[in-house]
Design a protein that fits this description.
The complex is a heterodimer of chains A (about 450) and B (about 180).
Chain A: H1 26-38, H2 44-70, H3 85-109, H4 119-139, H5 144-151, H6 167-200, H7 204-214, H8 221-254, H9 266-292, H10 301-331, H11 335-346, H12 350-362, H13 370-373, H14 376-403, H15 418-441, H16 447-451
Chain B: H1 3-6, E1 11-18, H2 21-33, E2 39-42, H3 48-53, H4 61-87, H5 100-126, E3 150-155, H6 163-171, E4 177-182
Antiparallel strand pairs in B: 1-3, 1-4, 2-3
Helix pairs in contact in B: 4-5
Classes of the chains: A mainly alpha (about 450), B alpha+beta (about 180).
């Protein structure tokens, strides 16, 4: 397909928007991306968003502080619903991270050059989302100091060890490995760009600070050779890792005997949902970022369209999973399984269930239209809808199975409290806070990888 | 490299600056064919052709990564075995103490973790990073090596290095500029 010149105007039918705006060379891409970081003046919109997210971060601190003081009684959890917002939010946030790894690792292995403009901030998104997710296992007991020996195997004075046959401990290893590997991947990607910032910095202090993080990177051919090898190996390692993480998360549920949870197809179903919500979050971040910083030359309509297509594809896998989930329940001879599914659709939480179907299956079908895929604000709205739907999916899975299990005498209801809500909103604030700090102090687009996309970067024979 | 060795020549090497990658790779290939070995190119993005031209074909990062993966795998499984079967055996639903299928996920995660740490820190160690000081940064226009220029440095350590001859040799490739790099 031929490519169209202007990156921000929808080209005629049959013509693709470009991957990079016209008229760039090695110097201008460096100045444009490094400029966001090196500019003295902090934009007003940045200060406003930072202020709001800092307030929400304060709300998070208040909610957690009160939790540690009073215990989990301030939340809506009870018996039978021992898992509530903490686990819903954990699964939601960790799922969001998955698209970052998909973009940076899997698309790298498939040599998809469109990943280059969005991989850096998608990786940052992964790390910050996993940080929000990781918060919940630490606080969900209300007594985080106990988490140390409950979660991590270390020789302690009581002589007790974690239970390695439990998926919950697999989760600890999966999530902490995922966080570490994501951090390493992001970190080595940043080294050459820190060197660029060091060399473009105008003041000595800034040069010294980025110089420390650049670790003396000088772009030597031998260094690049090892660097590229390590980068590809990390991509190859991150690919099975990212698939394992949400699979292990799903086993937290699937290995329990509860109706609605005890299903073998949970791992692929959860992984598809994770990537679905992750792409929605990539778009939620990319669309305002390119608009506010005028980065339409780097994050073009082509990138948005490709993310939208992947969102549509994973959304269809999710839709198929919902259909199969209902089919399994109906086809099985298990009356508890049937009752659990029927309870989801018609029980006290049916509003949540049908809203989730609306958000995750019906409304995203608008992505079949090129007009929706190519209009940033429409795409932004669909992404918000999808992430709402994915949160509701976790709510429905967790709450409806716990509140009505085998014995009607042990049934109960779960309603969240204001502290639950404050914690959820607080993590959104914390996430935004970290993300905007990242945009201000680190190159949000990989400069050296963008350079190698330019036609003049190729060696001519 | 010993201290006395490094001061055999008053300069680190000769740095030739090129405006595009094609000229750089051409010069690097030419220098390799002329018998120069102690040289390196400095580019703002990875350039496979430049690495090949200076003779950097293979590296030991994959080996280090494999060792990391094996250590992680063995370490993870041994930890689970020792905890569950030796130090703290607990009967859970009649499952055997050494219930190996349940130990696979953690073993897998530990292998990935070990491999990733080895890949990153192995790459940094083999590259000699972090390195607070390196002579190439004394070259006046070298800040552009992380921006839009391409550099080839023939080091004075090379047995074939003769200041005047090497300078004349590099001039044959029509670089933008040639500078002496002091220590």
């Amino acid at each position: 397909m031929p490519e169209f010149e202007n990156p921000d105007v929808l080209p005629p039918k049959g013509v693709r928007p470009p991957l990079l705006g016209p008229g760039h060379d090695l110097g201008t891409v460096t100045d444009r991306i490094a400029g966001i970081v090196l500019q003295k003046h902090t934009p007003v919109f940045w200060l406003m968003i930072f202020g709001v997210s800092a307030m929400l971060f304060g709300v998070l601190n208040a909610a957690i502080g009160y939790l540690f003081f009073r215990g989990t009684g301030i939340w809506g959890i009870n018996i039978p619903s021992g898992w509530g917002f903490a686990i819903i939010n954990f699964v939601w946030w960790i799922g969001i991270g998955h698209a970052g790894t998909l973009i940076s690792a899997i698309l790298l292995l498939f040599k998809q050059s469109w990943r280059t403009s969005i991989n850096r901030f998608a990786e940052a998104m992964t790390i910050f989302a996993v940080m929000q997710a990781g918060l919940f296992p630490l606080i969900h007991t209300g007594r985080p100091w106990l988490a140390a020996y409950w979660l991590f195997p270390y020789p302690n004075s009581m002589g007790v060890w974690p239970q390695f046959r439990s998926p919950l401990i697999w989760d600890v290893f999966a999530v902490s490995t995922y966080f570490t590997v994501s951090l390493l991947f992001w970190g080595i990607g940043l080294i050459p760009d820190f060197a660029s910032l060091r060399d473009s910095a105008k003041t000595l202090v800034v040069r010294r600070i980025y110089g420390i993080f650049a670790m003396g990177w000088r772009g030597s051919a031998r260094h690049w050779n090892r660097y590229e090898t390590a980068y590809m190996l990390l991509a190859g390692l991150a690919t099975p890792l990212v698939l394992s993480v949400h699979s292990v998360v799903s086993l937290d549920f699937a290995s329990a005997v509860l109706p609605g949870w005890h299903t073998t197809f949970f791992p692929p179903y959860f992984v598809a949902g994770a990537i679905y919500s992750g792409f929605a979050m990539v778009l939620i971040l990319a669309i305002p970022f390119r608009y506010l910083y005028g980065m339409q030359d780097f994050i073009t309509l082509r990138h948005l369209q490709n993310c939208a297509k992947l969102m549509l594809a994973t959304g269809l896998i999710v839709a198929y999973s919902y259909a199969m989930e209902a089919f399994f329940a109906w086809y099985s001879p298990d009356k508890y399984e049937r009752a659990a599914m029927w309870n989801r659709m018609t029980g006290p939480y049916k509003g949540y269930y049908w809203t989730l179907i609306l958000c995750n299956i019906i409304l995203p079908q608008s992505l079949w239209f090129n007009k929706v895929r190519s209009t940033p604000w429409r795409l932004f709205v669909v992404s918000l809808v999808v992430n709402t739907g994915m949160w509701l999916e976790r709510y429905v899975i967790i709450v409806t199975s716990l509140q009505r299990d085998f014995l009607p005498s042990s049934w109960g209801m779960y309603w969240f409290t204001k502290w639950d809500l404050m914690t959820l909103l607080g993590t959104m604030g914390f996430f935004t806070l970290l993300f905007f700090l990242f945009i201000r102090f680190m190159p949000a687009i990989s400069i050296f990888e963008i350079r190698s996309l330019l036609p003049q970067s190729k060696v001519k024979e | 490299m010993t201290a006395s060795h490094s001061h055999a020549s008053p300069i680190y090497g000769l740095m030739a600056e090129f405006e595009n990658p094609t000229d750089l790779v051409h010069a690097a290939k030419g220098a390799f064919e002329a018998g120069y070995r102690k040289m390196d190119t400095y580019t703002p993005y990875p350039l496979e052709e430049a690495a090949e031209a200076v003779g950097a074909h293979h590296n030991r990062v994959p080996l280090v990564t494999l060792i990391g993966a094996i250590l992680g795998m063995v370490g993870g499984y041994s930890l689970e075995y020792w905890v569950s079967a030796v130090n703290y055996p607990i009967n859970v639903g009649g499952k055997p103490y050494h219930s190996w299928p349940a130990f696979i996920p953690v073993t897998f995660e530990c292998a990935i973790l070990g491999a990733s740490l080895a890949a990153v820190f192995g790459m940094l160690t083999l590259n000699g990073l972090p390195q607070p000081y390196h002579p190439v940064f004394n070259s006046p226009n070298f800040v552009r090596a992380s921006r839009d220029r391409f550099f080839l440095c023939i080091e004075s350590q090379d047995p074939k290095f003769r200041l005047e001859d090497t300078r004349r040799f590099l001039e044959g490739f029509r670089p933008h500029e040639i500078t002496e790099v002091p220590y």
